[in-house]
Each structure stands twice: as structure tokens, then as C-alpha cells.
Design a protein that fits this description.
By secondary structure, this protein is an alpha+beta fold. The chain is about 20% helix and about 35% strand. The longest helix is centred in the N-terminal third of the chain and has 13 residues.
Length: about 220
């Protein structure tokens, strides 16, 4: 109501996937399989946790080949294309992620490829610093496959089946949005968690005897 009485018009980007508009995300692979499940509407987080263990064990679903601009992304188990990139991507969806802006003119791309238990564990612990995770931006993303074949796609949470190849692009500032003039700003994203520093703080190394530490009883 505030937007209608004392609003301010903003121009934001609008995504396009195979000729369909999207405001938030397009997901493929394991991400799309989550949305395809009938129980997803009632329990999004619970359904995701039921499906994602397959990914952490190396995955048994189809692998996806995609191209982000000129960069090939081969054998991906999950692929998420967003209208502008997320500030702190969370590949497992356990933390609410945010985009700091919607008018940057670029797609955000998150790809996951896990080959074996070691990479699965690394993904679970390191998150967006894991080697099995690709986080980048692009202006055009093409998800391949046999021409005329179909793949599961989730567009803004809607489960669809689309023929390949599926092309995602962005229409810069194509959408006019009316928002309240007095509104909260974008929250500052938290810094990435430094697991090595956290481990050192939790399990400090004991100083060797005679190292000059006045609080060490072994030097008394």
C-alpha cells in the first residue's frame, strides 16, 4: 500500500529461459528434481534434504553439459542460473541466500560436480570454496543435450519439462517495479567462513616445553 501511495519506480533485470520470463532462478539437474517432487510445495527444506544426499554420494542422475558464455561446464549434477548473482552462494540450500541487486545485467551461475566421496565431503565442509563447485557470472547460458530431447527444469519454483538445448539470457532493466520510498536496504552479506581459522581457534596447538611461554608450567 505504501508503494501505491508514495512509491518509487525501479527498473530491474528480467531473465529469459527458452522464451519464458523468470524473475529469480532456473534450476537443472538435482535442483530441478527437488522441485519436481509433489511434496516440495509443503516442505521445501525437508524435500531438499531427502534428495541432496544422492548428490553428496556422487550422484546417480543424469549429468548436464552447459556453456556459460564461452566457458564449458561439463558433467554437472546440478546447475542453478539466477537473475543476477547471489552474494554468498550456498550450494546445499541450508542458508537463505540473497542477491544484493537485480539490475547488474548478468546471470549468476552455480554448477556442482562431485566425483567421489572426497569431493562430496569437501563440498559439505568448504561450501562455495570447494573444487567441485563453480560460481561465475555470464550473459548467456546454454544447457545442452540431444536436440529435441527434454529435461526437467524448475523456473521460479515451477516444475517444467523443456526441449534441449535450453538457453537462458537476461533482458537488462526490462521490468518496471513500484516499491515503497521508505524501505529497508539490502543486508550486507556475511563474510565466507574460514574453516581453517575456526579449527585453529577450536583446537589450539599446545606450545612445546621450554618455548618461553611464562604461563607454561613446564618452564617454571
Amino acid at each position: 500500500l505504501d508503494a501505491l501511495t508514495d512509491g518509487e519506480e525501479l527498473r530491474i533485470d528480467l531473465g529469459d529461459v527458452a522464451g519464458r520470463p523468470f524473475v529469480n532462478t532456473v534450476s537443472f539437474g538435482v535442483y530441478a528434481d527437488v522441485v519436481q517432487r509433489p511434496e516440495y510445495r509443503d516442505d521445501k527444506a525437508g524435500t531438499a534434504l531427502d534428495v541432496l544426499p544422492d548428490l553428496l554420494q556422487g550422484g546417480f542422475g543424469d549429468r548436464l553439459d552447459a556453456t556459460a558464455d564461452s566457458l564449458p561446464l561439463t558433467g554437472q549434477q546440478a546447475l542453478l542460473v539466477s537473475n543476477n548473482p547471489y552474494a554468498a552462494p550456498d550450494p546445499l540450500g541450508t542458508v537463505a541466500a540473497r542477491r544484493t541487486r537485480l539490475d547488474g545485467g548478468e546471470l549468476g551461475v552455480i554448477g556442482i560436480r562431485v566425483d567421489g566421496a572426497a569431493q562430496a565431503a569437501e563440498l559439505a565442509v568448504l561450501g562455495n570454496r570447494a573444487t567441485g563447485l563453480k560460481v561465475l557470472t555470464a550473459r548467456r547460458v546454454e544447457v545442452g543435450g540431444v536436440p529435441g530431447a527434454t529435461i526437467s527444469v524448475a523456473v521460479d519454483g515451477e516444475a517444467l519439462t523443456l526441449p534441449t538445448p535450453v538457453v537462458c539470457t537476461l533482458r537488462p532493466r526490462a521490468l518496471r517495479v513500484l516499491v515503497p520510498r521508505d524501505r529497508p536496504g539490502s543486508p550486507v552479506p556475511p563474510p565466507p567462513l574460514d574453516w581453517r581459522r575456526l579449527t585453529r581457534l577450536a583446537f589450539p596447538e599446545e606450545p612445546a616445553a621450554g618455548d618461553g611461554n611464562p604461563w607454561d608450567p613446564r618452564t617454571s
